[in-house]
Amino acid sequence: MRNVGKLFARMSASPNKNCKRLFTVCIEGNIGSGKTTFLNNFKANDNMLVLQEPVELWRDVGGTNLLEKMYKDPVRYGCLFQSYVQLTMLQLHTQKTNLPFKVMERSVYSARCFIENMKRTKMLEKVEIDILEQWHEWCIQRADIQTDLIVYLRTSPEVVYERMRTRARKEEDCVSLEYLRQVHDVHDDWLYNRSLFSVPAPVMVLDANKSVSEMMAEFEKCRRSIFENRDKLIMENKNMQKRRNVEPMSPLSPTKISVGSV
Q: Residue 87 in contact with residue 98, Cβ under 8 Å?
């Protein structure tokens, strides 16, 4: 519990004014969309903090594999798991670094997608959804989780289903194609159609249905775009925040960009 208390204190603290402005990129997408492969492309850069989704923490919560329990019995463990996901993602968001770039696999923002899916499929009780949404809203409003760019690895559910079967994580044995379609629909509504909750930063959409060799070329272009257009993207994000403060936020407002447009 002391660690949780320290985390909450750190989340609410102002950033060190002597540090260079941190540029944070969140990589979003369905299960098996290539997020880890994308992050691996950035690990050779010594000016980036690269943070993978904390799957190992979810697999060992005091000796319990919470990820596996959630997949096998989502009605029983869904609320507990999503609450822990939000805590561990906050730990990544608030991890300090003196480097100018931070690249994260998923985010507190996309945790809302999985809550939304449980809401749509009536997997959880209304009171559980209410608690998760209040917890999520507190994170968004009170924590220092500034995000400057979202990279959405957009895939078809059928493609990621085959990838998931190939990589054969034991926890994912019971993940169905229908579930992947549900997760895809929520991500698409959020980041592509912009018809769900608001988007916190400009979005770069990549077609991640391509082969590994094709995607590596796309990842390299994306990496260069981030390096070369850091200031432009920060300015775009500031403009988005100003529009949010002046007028009601439309779900269609945030900018959607391609690799070659920045």
A: no
105 is catalytic: yes
Q: Could you tell me where the beta strands, DSSP code E, fall in the chain? A: 23-29, 48-51, 101-105, 149-154, 203-207, 256-257
Closest to 84 measured CA to CA, from 67, 97, 99: 67
Partnered with residue 28 across adjacent β-strands are 152
How far apart CA 211 and CA 185 sit, in angstroms, is: 22
Averages of pLDDT over runs of 10 residues in the chain (262 residues) are 44 42 94 92 89 96 96 96 97 94 96 96 96 94 91 97 90 92 98 91 93 86 82 77 48 45 46
Hunting for tokens 């009536």 — which residue is that? 122
Looking at the DSSP assignment, which residues form a beta bridge with residue 101? Answer: 23, 48
Task: Output the six-digit token pair for 15.
Answer: 């950033």
Answer left, alpha or beta for residue 106, where phi above 0 means left and psi between -120 and 50 means alpha.
left
pTM for the model: 0.82
Q: For position 256, what pLDDT does the model report?
A: 54
Cα→Cα distances 117→23, 51, 87, 122, 179, Å: 29, 25, 19, 8, 9
Considering 53, 105, 116, 236, which one is annotated as catalytic? 105
**Angle at CA 105, nearest 5°, toward 44 and 48?**
30
Indicate left, alpha or beta for 171 from its phi (over 0: left) and psi (-120 to 50: alpha).
alpha
Instruction: Walk me through the domains of the chain, giving residue ranges and CATH numbers.
Output: 22-52+95-121+144-261 (3.40.50.300)
Residues 87, 35 contacting (CB under 8 angstroms):
no
